[in-house]
Amino acid sequence: MEPTQRIEQALEAAIVSAQGPGCPPGFAQALRYSVFPGGARIRPRLCLAVAWACGNSDPETTDAAAAAIELLHCASLVHDDLPCFDDSTLRRGRPSVHCAYGERLAVLAGDALIVLAFEIVARRIIAAPANVSRVMATIARCTGAPVGICAGQAWECESEVVLEDYHRAKTGSLFVAATVAGAESVGAPTESWRLVGERLGEAYQVADDLGDAMASSREMGKPLGRDSSLGRPNAVQELGIEGAVRRLKDLVASATDAVPACPGAPALQALIAAESRRILPEELARLAA
Amino acid sequence: MEPTQRIEQALEAAIVSAQGPGCPPGFAQALRYSVFPGGARIRPRLCLAVAWACGNSDPETTDAAAAAIELLHCASLVHDDLPCFDDSTLRRGRPSVHCAYGERLAVLAGDALIVLAFEIVARRIIAAPANVSRVMATIARCTGAPVGICAGQAWECESEVVLEDYHRAKTGSLFVAATVAGAESVGAPTESWRLVGERLGEAYQVADDLGDAMASSREMGKPLGRDSSLGRPNAVQELGIEGAVRRLKDLVASATDAVPACPGAPALQALIAAESRRILPEELARLAA
Questions:
Q1: Is the separation of the CB atoms in A109 and A78 below 8 Å?
Q2: What is the rounded end-to-end Cα distance, in angstroms, of chain A?
Q3: Which pLDDT belongs to residue B220?
Q4: Pair A163, A206 in one domain
Q5: CATH assignment at residue A4
Q6: B271 closest CA partner among B43, B14, B112
Q7: What ipTM does this complex have?
Q8: GO terms for biological process (chains A, B) (predicted)?
């Protein structure tokens, strides 16, 4: 089965189980709306690609880990969009969950997706206790406190921000979860995969900063890279547009280099290359060609 | 070690691990504030008492299950108090988490406590995979969708409420989690313990309804039991004060009767009796004496 199909199937099975008998109808809809249709599903695709590179010996545990990471990513988007955070009315081109279903169901959908993520991984405990134990520790660490995405988001509430901790926790941690849990789900060593995840996480952060700068340039007629809308230093502010594009390319190259020699390495490197084209708008890619 | 001490120690260790290096300082404080000082800790006490009645053969797994259930209870209180739900400014006699630390940290603290709950149970996978697998499935089912506390809260967003599903999910489910996971943590059968949890959950729901009726009587000078502030039918509305008190006593008696014959039964029955005195104000207990 194709990776994309495996991921959608695992997510579909998870959501169907969450919508089971007894579920309040509006809540059941909000849960599905939070997960489908998806974005690029890059984190679960990475997770599957790493497990494949490591021998793909337990696809069911890998699928559970990949789907769990995507559910946690979806939960973080639903909560990040809430009025008290980004107050985003749109997500992936349609109303955000709280705009479509109200703030209460958005809070609850995020909560239930977190629970669901751990629930689907826990279903693999009997089949593969040692690997699942490591996968769960990794996913929890990359999601909660002190250094997961919740902690990353919480840095936005501090008056003094440790910028490296902020970025690593907010954007990097789920990429690390994807690569490391991919390896752990098949019992493989994780050291080099952690590096791949860290580099890719940083690359996405730079791509985000570039996207923000482009958007504010288009929307507000401001010159590119002069400021950041949240007043926090970012890669564009620090390096300028061209410098940030170069930095992004360096990070992608470094992630690619970090992939250890193995039968699945070419496929994984192709995935990284395709992703780097997707996240870097062509108009920018030319700048630092 | 005394049960109360075991519970506080397990919760303390969990919060300390969540506050580890790299945690944003305000977030670290909000996490601790969400859990300490606690309320009656009735759910983890029940969990320990059931495991004790079943032989107490794996106290570390039982402690993890008990602490996880309390963390999930705390998370639900933090989110329930949010402006979009109950908009409560007070909890246990001091400012609620969002009043003390802001709405964003309250949302994030709830999220991170959910993650932490599963994380601490997952640490016992290697030691006791079969029991932990069952404990995790139980805790997830009683917390998320379709029938856990998230689903219970979500019924409040529906125009037509299935009242039994609402109460069972919102109040009952964590009591069932406490008794069932207590038995599962030591590999014991769960059937009769589920009944104990269900009956106690219903008793707490009736006690809540009585408490609301008493409070609105005191605060607003309204006669007892004439209405419910949320406009939903409840035990007091249905049965009147005396009837509700009688119902509560019947439920407690039925929970006590459901405790299977075992060496720990008297201690567990004493705990239930003490709790029923705690949740039923003396002024009411006399009414249906």
A1: yes
A2: 36
A3: 54
A4: no
A5: 1.10.600.10
A6: B43
A7: 0.94
A8: phospholipid biosynthetic process; terpenoid biosynthetic process
